[in-house]
Amino acid sequence: MTGTWPHLFREGAAGTPVLLLLHGTGGTEQDLLPLVERLSPGSGYLAPRGPVQEHGMNRWFRRLREGVFDIDDVVRRAGELEEFIEWARDQYGITNRALIAVGFSNGANIALATALLHPRTLTEVVAFSGMYPLEGRAVDADLTGSSVALFNGKADAMAPFDSVVRLGSILESRGTEVSRNVREGGHGIHPTEADGAAAWIASHTRKVSHD
After folding, report:
1. What gap in Å lies between CA 7 and CA 5, rounded to an integer?
2. CATH code for position 177
3. What is the residue range of 20's domain?
4. Catalytic residue check, 105
5. How many domains are contained in the chain?
6. Which of 187, 166, 122 is nearest to 148 (CA)?
7. Catalytic one among 105, 129, 146, 147?
């Protein structure tokens, strides 16, 4: 599917990362574009559209019901996203650019699943209102060198806090550097979280450029 997957791309300024923008349920490839200049001014972006349909809404993978994912489909779709990323790196000549996934809700979950299952392809993730996406599935990959920033509301019924805590513990147990950021409130992207994510992206962009 790769090259025919609907998406938007901007190369961005030299020395900036490319942000992989992954929208939430019912969104499109346009949804997170307004965040780019706030998170990383001048950066490039790669914004695909979720390939799964649920009652006319775009999603990244199927779910059995609210909060219960089709784990086999999560694994399959993470593999498809991994293939798309590799295709885009070659297609747009960004193989040597830092690629940082920025996902919201369902988009955060597919970013996290891809980082857990395909750590050679995706090593940097900013996850807004995400949760553990692979319930009941063992993760045995070595995630040393990967970094994830989690931004969650304590009262988020769509991303239960116990799942968020488990997610952080599993990531760290496999070697990921995890930044946990918890606020009052529920589902969404709070302005303070955008500021925190911008600082995190800036620090990790500098780290990548110096390595």
Report:
1. 6
2. 3.40.50.1820
3. 2-210
4. yes
5. 1
6. 122
7. 105
